[in-house]
Automatic annotation (TrEMBL):
Family: Belongs to the TDD superfamily. DTWD2 family.
Keyword line: S-adenosyl-L-methionine, Transferase, tRNA processing
Protein's UniProt name: tRNA-uridine aminocarboxypropyltransferase
Top class in the EC scheme: transferase
Superkingdom classification of source: Bacteria
EC number(s) given by UniProt: 2.5.1.25
Span of domain DTW: 2-191
Xref: InterPro entries: DTW (IPR005636), DTWD2/TAPT (IPR039262)
């Protein structure tokens, strides 16, 4: 028998995160394109990001035909958060901005690398957008899973990094509170001993 869920954060009512989810404003509009498989993920940080940002939207699917015409109305201010040839880093984009804050559209694919590439394949016009990439050396706070590649972050961490870089360091850190609570709850459920045995091994540098 499944446990009752909060209709807003989709967590079990006994572990509702709504009190930890902020309501933050941003000049940057964030559009998260979530692969359908990610809706069943235990963390689903894309949902947390969309709930915590006033200027954010979450769309689920593989094909987004309506979005191409919507992007035409942005006046070229749309960026795709995905590495690729010619991609600018967040720091480079922020340094290029002058004057008043810019109202950008940041499109964030949500899924594994394979699923994110699938989204670009199904929506080829996405691949034509200017790319934004994360800087090297970033470390995820998700301590329960080894990152698939160096510098790989969860969706909510990547969004926070981008918004902090574009609009002010630390302004969006509060968005990570429910994410941290999820991690701590998972560690508590498995027990400290199991966590240390299975997830802290290999922390020492290689000989």
């Amino acid at each position: 028998m499944s446990r009752a869920q909060c209709p807003r954060c989709a967590r079990p009512l006994t572990h509702c995160l709504c009190q930890l989810i902020p309501h933050l404003s941003s000049h940057t509009r964030v559009l998260i394109l979530q692969h359908p498989d990610e809706t069943r993920h235990a963390l689903n940080t894309a949902r947390l990001a969309a709930l915590g940002l006033a200027n954010a939207e979450l769309r689920v699917g593989e094909h987004f035909p309506e979005l191409e015409s919507e992007l035409a109305a942005t006046g070229g201010a749309a960026w795709l958060l995905f590495p690729g040839e010619g991609a600018q880093t967040v720091a480079q984009l922020a340094a290029s901005a002058t004057g008043a804050p810019v109202e950008r559209l940041l499109i964030v694919p949500d899924g594994t690398w394979r699923k994110a590439r699938r989204l670009l394949y199904c929506n080829p016009w996405l691949a034509e957008l200017p790319r934004l990439a994360l800087e090297d050396g970033l470390v995820s706070r998700y301590r329960l899973r080894k990152a698939p590649a160096a510098g790989a972050l969860s969706t909510i961490e990547a969004i926070v990094h981008c918004l902090n870089g574009l609009e002010g360091t630390g302004r969006f850190d509060e968005l990570l509170r429910p994410f941290e609570a999820l991690i701590e709850a998972q560690i508590a459920a498995m027990g400290e001993e199991v966590y240390r045995r299975n997830h802290l091994r290999g922390d020492a540098p290689d000989e």
